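Run log // design_07
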């Protein structure tokens, strides 16, 4: 029972002192502490006794074993023992000796026995002549053995020692032992000390507890009336100063306490305290019912005197007794209104925050518009449609006077919507809100679509379907970025009863403004990306040249994030050979694409010199160094940051593939049986590093082998390791009887993600072999007279090939080339004819001196040979080998007879 405030100060000091603040005397706490101390001391004493008993038992056992061994061993080695064992009556001799020794040594028995365990001596004479109780096997083997047994004397520890003859044989046994209980130990003398210490600890604990109890009692008794009065005054001051009503009701339903805030909120009379709560009057029935019921309530809302009150009620007895209840009352009228406004504002801020992180996640115009439509439903609108000008989808700015907008996004609370479908090109009439918003750049609000005749003029039948679907309000906002109107965003309401207002217009404009910037960024990116891709594709080979050495398939895929510098090429070389090239310029954008074009052009130019792969890469490395130097001197800072290249030459005659690489991944080779292996190649530094030579490797390839060249974008991927990519490539290629085109599709499907982050260039070439019946060659002696034989051989060979029409020109060409080789070159001289897409004539000699074309004067007698060669052939040239040089010339084959007709 709580007394009224005006009676608190009259409580006497005696009554206050008689109350127990916690309901328990300090003595009970001290008693608990004393019991705890007793338990701890007893546990410590018991632990010490247990440890002492265990230690004493261990020591007793060890002492018994040591004493038994010592006595038995001493007696076994005593003089005359072996002679006594051999005497006719060992017991008569040994029994007195063992008893005397036993008493002097302090053991309980000494037993002498033969090797069969029959006793000669024993403290109990009736045990003599009987079998020894114990283990004698180890001792018969010559060892000392100790054990614990239950013998005639009780629980004993005994030792058995062998008696040995001079030759080491055991002639008898001696056992000595004693009972464990007879072994004295220091533990028995320590036990009184431990018990005495425990008793002293208990006495100290008792004294300490008594002193603490006395001190607590003295301190709690010192509280005076002034201190108690001041404590209650502070309690009343706090109670009536808080901005929350407090009501305490007794178990008899009388109002015991109501602070000033409770009287004001509930409209209680001044004399309400002490009266029955049900007869006060003026209380809201729901509030009165709650206070009288005594039930637990949490944040219940009640109306009283035009206010919204939040009531919490709990029993005063925490243990569930019936001492009464205490209720707190809080006025939430203004707070509720502010909370509603704050909730609306918070929802709008949350929507704008989601727009900031959810719109513009990709540089794709349509995807960004879909993100805007998805974000606004259902929090802001029930349906959203986004219409953009057609040029925007291709990266351009809207042009022209026609208002043709393409619907790129539709989203709503229902999938079966009545709006124009996505992808439809819509020509809005001037009276529609879309046309007015697109033309003026200002948002348009249509509160009631059923009476909006300007909007209905677009398509009466279609607009009627929209109204019949329940859509009643429209907010159209132009999609404007950097002063350019890109389209319109339309927000529709159907389930939300109210039309769009100014607050909705402001929020919608903010949403669309954020989306417009992302759409414009995506538009600009689309334009730049299209330009870069167009440039890069124009720099790559549009069609592969015709050749007979390789069956080639290729793929080039630009990255989604921008073009890069990946490239490839197939270059026919003299002698039916073909060069395969693949390279990669580090970086993205137009600069990487332009650098790639320069390197590809350089490779084409260097290949016309018919250089081996290592020399060609050396020239290309010097070119990259010059490019870096020129651009560094110009201050542009856009040099080649890194480039790799692989150059391979395949010869269908020798079936040799000569490869050199500058920091580029090695090719994969797919055998005719479908096996895949990656050859070990000497890897040179990337282009532009300089200072290190490049090396070549020669591979002999069987006919039908597929050479797979690729850039690192095919293998490297952020979600997997490089080794995993190589293994995936191996698995994708490991199939028999699959053509290069099929392998290209399989490799890309197996290794590329949906949106690759890097360019990919893939080149797969299947080798062919020039048949032996298309090759003719012979050696030429170093004699000018041999030229006539060469002409005859040429004529016969061309007749056999059906190329008699070329005999005259070929004889003239080879006569001049062979004569020059004999006259100015060095042996050996060889002639080779190849019948491929053209007739190829080759003259090989051991000299490295190259002939040059000259124009002879009319009075000169010589100097017209190479000029004649150039006139009779389609092209000619020289290439150098490690043994000399080859001068070659090509003539086009005559058209088939049916083609000439």
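design_07 sequence
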């Amino acid at each position: 029972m709580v007394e009224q405030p005006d009676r608190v100060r009259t409580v006497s000091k005696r009554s206050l002192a008689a109350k127990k603040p916690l309901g328990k005397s300090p003595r009970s706490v001290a008693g608990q502490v004393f019991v705890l101390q007793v338990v701890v001391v007893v546990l410590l004493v018991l632990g010490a006794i247990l440890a002492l008993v265990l230690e004493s038992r261990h020591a007793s056992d060890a002492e018994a074993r040591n004493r038994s061994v010592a006595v038995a061993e001493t007696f076994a080695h005593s003089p005359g023992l072996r002679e006594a064992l051999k005497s006719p009556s060992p017991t008569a001799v040994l029994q007195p000796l063992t008893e005397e020794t036993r008493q002097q040594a302090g053991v309980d028995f000494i037993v002498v026995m033969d090797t069969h365990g029959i006793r000669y001596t024993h403290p109990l004479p009736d045990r003599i002549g009987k079998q020894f109780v114990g283990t004698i096997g180890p001792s018969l083997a010559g060892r000392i053995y100790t054990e614990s047994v239950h013998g005639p004397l009780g629980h004993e520890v005994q030792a058995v020692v062998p008696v040995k003859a001079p030759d080491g044989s055991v002639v008898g046994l001696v056992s000595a032992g004693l009972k464990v209980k007879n072994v004295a130990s220091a533990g028995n003398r320590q036990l009184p000390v431990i018990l005495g210490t425990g008793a002293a600890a208990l006495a100290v604990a008792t004294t300490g507890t008594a002193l603490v109890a006395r001190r607590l009692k003295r301190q709690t008794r010192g509280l005076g009336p002034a201190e108690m009065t001041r404590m209650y005054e502070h309690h009343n001051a706090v109670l009536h100063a808080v901005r929350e009503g407090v009501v305490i009701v007794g178990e008899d339903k009388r109002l015991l306490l109501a602070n000033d805030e409770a009287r004001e909120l509930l409209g209680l009379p001044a004399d309400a305290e002490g009266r029955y709560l049900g007869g006060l009057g003026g209380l809201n029935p729901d509030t009165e019912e709650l206070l009288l019921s005594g039930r637990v309530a949490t944040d219940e809302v009640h109306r009283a005197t035009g206010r919204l009150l939040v009531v919490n009620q709990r029993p005063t007895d925490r243990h569930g007794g019936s001492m009464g209840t205490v209720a707190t009352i809080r006025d939430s009228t203004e707070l509720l209104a502010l909370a509603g406004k704050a909730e609306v504002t918070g929802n709008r801020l949350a929507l704008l925050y989601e727009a900031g992180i959810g719109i513009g996640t990709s540089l794709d115009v349509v995807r960004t518009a879909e993100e805007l439509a998805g974000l606004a439903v259902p929090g802001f609108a029930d349906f959203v449609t986004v219409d953009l000008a057609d040029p925007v989808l291709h990266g351009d700015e809207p042009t022209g006077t026609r208002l043709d907008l393409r619907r790129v996004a539709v989203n709503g609370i229902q999938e079966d919507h009545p709006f124009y479908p996505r992808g439809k090109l819509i020509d809005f009439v001037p009276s529609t809100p879309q046309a007015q918003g697109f033309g003026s750049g200002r948002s348009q609000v249509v509160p009631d679509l059923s009476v909006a005749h300007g909007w209905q003029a677009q398509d009466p039948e279609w607009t009627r379907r929209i109204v019949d679907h329940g859509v009643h309000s429209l907010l159209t906002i132009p999609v404007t970025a950097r002063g350019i109107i890109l389209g319109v965003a339309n927000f529709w309401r159907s389930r939300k009863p109210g039309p769009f207002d100014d607050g909705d217009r402001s929020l919608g404009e903010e949403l669309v403004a954020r989306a417009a910037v992302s759409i414009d960024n995506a538009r600009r990116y689309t334009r730049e990306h299209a330009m870069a891709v167009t440039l890069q594709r124009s720099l790559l080979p549009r069609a592969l040249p015709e050749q007979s050495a390789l069956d080639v398939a290729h793929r080039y895929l630009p990255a989604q994030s921008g073009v890069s510098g990946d490239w490839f090429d197939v270059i026919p070389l003299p002698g039916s050979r073909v060069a395969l090239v693949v390279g990669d310029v580090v970086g993205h954008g137009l600069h990487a694409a332009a650098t790639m074009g320069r390197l590809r052009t350089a490779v084409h130019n260097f290949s016309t010199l018919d250089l081996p792969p290592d020399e060609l890469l050396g020239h290309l490395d010097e070119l990259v160094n010059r490019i870096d130097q020129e651009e560094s001197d110009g201050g542009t800072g856009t040099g080649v940051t890194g480039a790799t290249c692989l150059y391979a030459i395949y010869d269908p005659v020798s079936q040799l593939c000569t490869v050199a690489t500058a920091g580029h991944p090695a090719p994969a080779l797919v055998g005719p049986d479908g096996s895949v292996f990656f050859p070990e190649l000497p890897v040179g530094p990337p282009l532009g590093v300089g200072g290190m030579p490049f090396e070549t490797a020669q591979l002999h390839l069987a006919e039908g082998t597929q050479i797979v060249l690729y850039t690192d974008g095919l293998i490297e991927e952020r979600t997997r390791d490089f080794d995993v990519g190589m293994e995936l490539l191996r698995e994708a290629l490991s199939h028999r009887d699959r053509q290069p085109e099929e392998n290209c599709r399989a490799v890309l499907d197996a290794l590329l993600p949906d949106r690759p982050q890097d360019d990919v260039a893939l080149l797969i070439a299947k080798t062919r072999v020039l048949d032996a019946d298309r090759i003719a060659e012979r050696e030429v002696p170093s004699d000018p007279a041999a030229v006539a034989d060469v002409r005859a051989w040429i004529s016969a060979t061309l007749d056999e090939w059906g190329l008699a029409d070329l005999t005259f020109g070929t004889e003239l060409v080879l006569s001049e080339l062979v004569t020059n080789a004999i006259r100015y070159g060095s042996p050996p001289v060889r002639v080779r004819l190849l019948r491929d897409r053209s007739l190829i004539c080759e003259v090989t000699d051991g000299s490295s001196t190259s002939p040059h074309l000259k124009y002879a004067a009319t009075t000169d007698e010589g100097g017209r040979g190479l000029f004649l060669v150039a006139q009779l052939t389609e092209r000619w040239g020289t290439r150098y080998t490690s043994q000399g040089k080859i001068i070659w010339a090509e003539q086009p084959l005559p058209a088939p007879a049916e083609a000439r007709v």
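Residues 1-27, 220-224, 856-863 have pLDDT under 50 and may be disordered.
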